[in-house]
Amino acid sequence: MARMNSESPRDRLLAAALRLLADEGPDALQARRVAAEIGASTMAVYTHFGGMGQLVEAVAVQGFVEFGAGLAAVPPHDDSLVHLFSIALAYRDFALNNANLYRLMFGLSPGKSPAAVDFTAGQMGAAGPEGAAAFGHLLDGVTRVMASGRIHQGDPMSAALQLWSAMHGYVLLEIAGFFGPDGDGIELVLVPLARNILIGMGDTAPPSLESIRAVLATVRAT
């Protein structure tokens, strides 16, 4: 996972917090532990962030920056469903490669995670520019599919939230080990899940399968 290049004390503290979270989990996010990682006193956390709560929020923000970068890196494709399923696989890759960070970003680290934002109340912007930008890649992907006539959900935001809900549940189960360590859940669970949702939104089975198989063929070739 890409990290910041700046050597400022603030960025060094943030990098240390990200490292501790990845290696040891959210319980390691303590002012004393983070400061010790850069050879500073505990006061450094309060000087540069105001407290551990603000540092944890900065960790989540950095997570969304990197999450969004991973989704943005998905190459465009003439088939809008290929592009959307590729975004789904990039989503999965980020979550599995950054499991502790992912859980913290989405409110699953009790006492550590930032407050959730109600997207159904039109508060997407309250997630901050980083969170909104990350979700925006999924929303844009869904909007492209709808514009192509492949699905007919009506409201792109509603469709994107449904797909996000499915992806979030899937990756949490895979992180927990319910789908094994070798990615078998992609074909056994994620593909039929995606196909069933897309058909429910108006796509037809053969085109959906062709689009998804095109993505899987690319994944297997890498």
List keywords for this structure.
67% helix, Tetracycline Repressor, domain 2, 10 helices, mainly alpha, Arc Repressor Mutant, subunit A, 2 domains, 0% strand, 222 residues
What's the order of the H and E elements? HHHHHHHHHH
Q: Tell me the CATH superfamily of the largest domain.
A: Tetracycline Repressor, domain 2
User: Based on CA inertia axes, which overall geometry fits?
Assistant: elongated
Termini distance? 19 Å
**How many domains is the backbone divided into?**
2
CATH third-tier fold name of the largest domain: Tetracycline Repressor, domain 2
Q: How would you describe the overall organization of this protein?
A:
The protein has helices at 9-24, 31-37, 43-49, 52-72, 80-97, 99-105, 128-147, 156-175, 185-200, 205-221. By secondary structure, the chain is mainly α. The protein folds into two domains: 1-50, Arc Repressor Mutant, subunit A, CATH 1.10.10; 57-220, Tetracycline Repressor, domain 2, CATH 1.10.357. The longest helix is centred in the N-terminal third of the chain and has 21 residues, at 52-72. The protein is elongated. The model has no long low-confidence stretch (mean pLDDT 89).
